[in-house]
Amino acid sequence: MINENYYDKNNLKNLDKASVRILFKRYRENRDKEIRDVLIEKHLYIAEILSKKYANRGIDHDDIYQVACIGLIYAIERYDIDKGFEFSSFATPTIIGEIKKYFRDKGWTIRVPRRIQELSKKINNAKVQLSQELQRSPTIEDIAAHLDSTEEEVLEAMEASKVYTPQSLDVTYDSHNDDKEVNLAELIGEEDLYFSRIENNDFLMRTMDKLNEIEKQILVERYFNKKTQVAIAKYLEISQMTVSRIEKRILEKLRKEIEKTIVD
Fold first, then answer.
1. What are the DSSP calls for 176-223, one per residue?
2. Can you list the domains of the chain with their CATH numbers?
3. DSSP letters along 58-124, please?
């Protein structure tokens, strides 16, 4: 239950699920800024998880995280707990939508002009040809003269190619913290396993709300407690055939919910 200290951000870890639900109800009724701040702090982990999924894609992670936090605030403002959705399930598409919108809006910062792309290709071809003709690595001056371009234009294209050309994951960099080298692969963001757990947990909770008590019990005993149909039948004092029939019904409901989730 929520006590008089439920606004205290230092006690966020002690807020149970029921208390959070009450907070959402109260915020929807009175739009109290203090309640909103508590809800934001409580759910910042969602913004952190989702922002990490979009790291190393040409935009600084801190910027992505700020956008994710804005998406989190939008989700809190729009969330209606009475509709039965878990907040994390509701917030995730809202936050991802804001992040993708930000990438679209800022796309110009990572889009290479066609002029640079074409010149970069010509420079690469010129390097090969001139190396054969001159029997040495061509200079910027050599390449510019060969392409009838200025040295500034050649340098601009070469610098752009360094930034935008895909690199091998085996490329290594010096670590600033120790003498070890770090592979590029180690710096690339990975799929956060906890994010998948959030989605799976919310899916199961939504689905179990649609099961009756006997179905819930069989689902838990069969797939969480790893009991056999025979053991469950004995425990519930019903036949093994009945357990089998109910289990098939449960799996069918799960299948329909999965299809519905994919369509949505």
1. SSSS-EEEHHHHS----HHHHHHHHHHHHHHHHTTS-HHHHHHHIIII
2. 9-109 (1.20.120.1810), 114-165 (1.10.10.10), 210-263 (1.10.10)
3. SS-HHHHHHHHHHHHHHHHHH--GGG---HHHHHHHHHHHHHHHHHHHTGGGGPPPHHHHHHHHHHH
pTM of the model: 0.43
First-to-last alpha carbon distance for the chain, in angstroms, is 34
pLDDT in tens, 142-191: 999 999 988 888 887 776 665 444 444 454 444 334 444 444 444 344 44
Q: Which residue has the tokens 């870890």?
A: 13
What residues contact residue 154 under an 8 Å CB cut-off, 6+ apart?
A: 119, 123, 140, 143, 144, 147
Nearest 5°: phi and psi at 183?
-75, 150
Q: Which of 142, 124, 122 is nearest to 133 (CA)?
A: 142
Measured CA to CA in angstroms, residue 259 lies from 117, 147, 196, 253, 255 at distances of 43, 57, 18, 10, 6
